UniProtKB/TrEMBL annotation:
Domain Orc1-like AAA ATPase: 35-168
Pfam families found in the cross-reference section: AAA_16 (PF13191)
Superkingdom of origin organism: Archaea
Protein name as catalogued: Cdc6/Cdc18 family protein
């Protein structure tokens, strides 16, 4: 945080008794424009992208590493900055060969959590390349391909950064490559994911860039910067930040989820301080291992609403599955059968877990309880904001 940021922070503090000044800074699904502690990784990726500075396509690549290691933060920041620096105007038409007035290189970031189907993928790429809005209705995937081909014909290379490959709800690297190969034009891709390259179909000629988890010291810096920008002065002790960084074992997503959960716990008593008990509550609300909140919030709307009701139920009311579904259905405009189907589907992808209740005491197969496998306190807070935005 530079001097101007520090002055601006004190100016917006206003009421010194406020706990949260900028909630976005505390969110595990939001990334800073300047990632903290990832300078060497940024340099390695810039080396990989070096051909774009001569107007040429880079080799295809795969950036992978453990969850919460800053992959998405770096990928989005680089795609945004390189797009602003190198991309041609979105409505430009190119007819010359490369030279002084030749087209530049376009960078497109695609989040596969929200653009996983062939249609949504092509729509996201085209929408990033043109100035006008790309319709979703009345057009098919083939027509989108044709429009995309017309857009890139005679233009410079297009680099597609495809984030979150290989998750239970998303496609693998091989599918991303296949979709881009199906469109005539000069495309290159950088896929981003957690899985081993062989597990997601990374071709042998692609460049693989590994990233390690944050060190404890770097993660402490990440949390301190977020807390300093997002919370009121003195709201969180530095010892609590160190505690979160040590506990999270290098996973920034887990650490930020616990931090936001601690803020949610502290908000209930009106005290503008996140104390040790709040921090413990925030950590206790994060299952280990856990599903990242970005993946949960990217689910279809009715499933997010179902999960929002689930986390509000006490554990004893989450069993058996059928009765749990009926309790959720009483709160939203879905049938119990639909909710039950959602819960079974979410269990298959690991978003929730069915836990056998051994002390049922009745005959027959013991019932199972539905437990969230994602940070519940942080999700509750983010889902509340998500619901407000959806209703607006």
């Amino acid at each position: 945080m530079d001097i101007e940021d520090r002055i601006a922070r004190r100016q917006r503090t206003g009421d010194r008794r406020r706990l949260v000044l900028d909630e976005q800074q505390l969110s595990p699904v939001w990334h800073r424009e300047e990632p903290i502690g990832r300078g060497p990784l940024i340099e390695r990726l810039l080396d990989h992208f070096d051909p774009v500075f001569d107007g040429r396509a880079p080799p295809d690549g795969y950036l992978h590493g453990p969850g919460g290691a800053g992959k998405s933060a770096v990928a989005t920041a680089l795609a945004d900055r390189l797009s602003a620096s190198l991309s041609p105007p979105s409505d430009a038409v190119f007819t010359t060969t490369r030279g002084g007035s030749a087209p530049g290189v376009s960078f497109v970031y695609v989040d596969l959590r929200t653009a996983d189907s062939a249609f949504e993928f092509s729509h996201a790429v085209l929408d990033a390349l043109v100035a006008e809005s790309v319709p979703r209705r009345g057009v098919g995937t083939d027509e989108l391909h044709e429009r995309l081909e017309r857009r890139v014909r005679g233009a410079g290379p297009v680099v597609v950064v495809a984030d979150h490959v290989g998750e239970p709800e998303t496609v693998d690297v091989a599918t991303v490559a296949e979709r881009l190969d199906g469109v005539a034009g000069a495309f290159a891709w950088l896929a981003v994911g957690r899985a081993d390259p062989d597990a997601v179909g990374v071709p042998d000629d692609a460049v693989v860039v590994d990233v390690e988890a944050y060190s404890r010291a770097t993660l402490t810096d990440v949390l301190a910067a977020r807390a300093d920008a997002g919370l009121g002065q003195g709201a969180l002790a530095h010892s609590a930040i160190r505690r979160l960084a040590e506990w999270a074992e290098g996973d920034a997503g887990v650490a930020l989820s616990a931090l936001l959960g601690a803020v949610e716990a502290a908000s209930g008593d009106g005290d503008p301080v996140v104390d040790d008990a709040d921090v413990e509550a925030g950590m206790a609300a994060v299952p280990w291992p856990c599903v990242p909140l970005g993946r949960v919030l990217a689910l279809p709307e009715n499933r997010v609403r179902t999960l929002a009701c689930l986390v509000d139920l006490p554990p004893e009311e989450r069993a058996p599955v059928g009765e749990c579904a009926a309790r959720i259905a009483d709160r939203i405009d879905l049938t119990a059968a639909t909710v039950e189907r959602f819960l079974y589907e979410l269990a298959e992808t690991g978003v929730v877990e069915r836990v056998r209740v051994d002390d049922s005491g009745g005959p027959g197969r013991p019932p199972s309880r539905v437990d969230p496998r994602f940070p519940t306190l942080a999700f509750r807070r983010l889902a509340r904001r998500w619901n407000e935005d959806s209703s607006a």
